[in-house]
Hints:
Blueprint lengths: L1 H15 L8 E3 L12 H5 L4 E2 L3 E5 L8 E3 L1 H6 L15 E5 L4 E6 L11 E7 L9 E3 L2 E3 L1 H17 L1
Parallel strand pairs: 1-3, 2-7
Antiparallel strand pairs: 3-5, 4-6, 6-7, 8-9
Amino acid sequence: MASIKFVTLITMVVILLPTIAMATEFVVGDANGWKPSFDYQAWAKDKVFHVGDTLVFNYPSPPHNVFKVNGTGFKECVKPTTNDQPPLTSGNDKIELKTAGNKWYICSTSNHCALGQKLTITVMEGPPAPAPSSAVRGFIFSGYQVFMAAIVGVFIAVAA
């Protein structure tokens, strides 16, 4: 009987694990990558960015790069003048969003920023809330959780 309780406990933990909010990795521009003449504002407009998420910039290096700038640098397409923030140049740059607020990124190669190779996003505090899909006895469960609960029920019935 104790082993059934242990298995039930472990299974319930597995059922609940997917509800823990996980960070999202956003590939900037999706399959288009990081390049001039692409509308990154349209790409970002339907996305919600949270602290803990990651931006991935894919591009050929050289010639492209990624500079984190302030609002003025974004608007004027000007890279930072201080050396404390060097450009990212790997061609597969990952930036973890560690704080909430507005974030601005540009490519500083010739006129690439002026041609649209720039991104501004707003990062929200905290992880996203899981989307509810069905209510069971006052608790909200996802389809995965209902499926796993059914499997546990069958397992307990067979083991009893």
